[in-house]
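To: structure subgroup
Subject: Chain for Friday's discussion

All,

I'm putting the inputs and outputs inline so they're searchable in the archive.
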Amino acid sequence: MFSEAELERYERQMRIRGFGPRGQEKLRKACVAIIGLGGLGCPAALYLAAAGVGSLRLVDKGRVELSNLNRQVLYREEDIGRSKALSAAERLKEVNPHVHVEPLPAQVSEENVLDILKGVDVVLDCLDNWRTRFIVNKACVELGVPLVHAGVRSFYGQATTIVPGEGPCLRCIIKANPPEEPGVPILGATSALIASIQVLEAIKLITGLGRPLIGRLLILDGLEMRFEEVLVRRDEDCPICGHISR
């Protein structure tokens, strides 16, 4: 049962056709892992908490820097030098005290990724490096957990949803590791827009509403304010997901 405060808090989204109390209950029972608490992870975590996702697992080993503040909206100047995961968790509890927030100030690696993702229903790839992205992608395939990938640079962004066995994984789409770029140029509004798409995808996966971005790569050109959809196919010879039967 929802409390009176919860019913009032979520009232506007429960008015959505097909959503209602049943959809809200699905959100309350769900656990979403957000890997990376930067320009994508901060707004994604904020809107997931506001929507009432019951449990959020925040994963980031970094500490807040002044240069983060143009886009990482969960942090303030007084957070500079503090753990991103711990600072973000504090802020999210202020946004919605009904949500359980688990901060994990850890670096994702091949050794710990399965433990980090244990028990989650959806994973959001809010990372800024490809090496860790592919580690998370592989783990999600092994665990059978949906992964919502996103990447941003400057005025540009991309997003896709990976459901193991139903469509391509990240390695199907990107065969070779792209070069890493330290200090990626980025406008805060770009990352906020793409993060909001990730949140919509996560909520759709949890509630069963709508059509997720499975087999589709959505690309934003913010300078032209144009979206393009690219169809992407599963590679039957993919070393990560090729063994999964349809």
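Points worth raising on Friday:
Residues 4-231 form a domain with the Rossmann fold fold (CATH 3.40.50.720).
The radius of gyration is 17 Å.

D.
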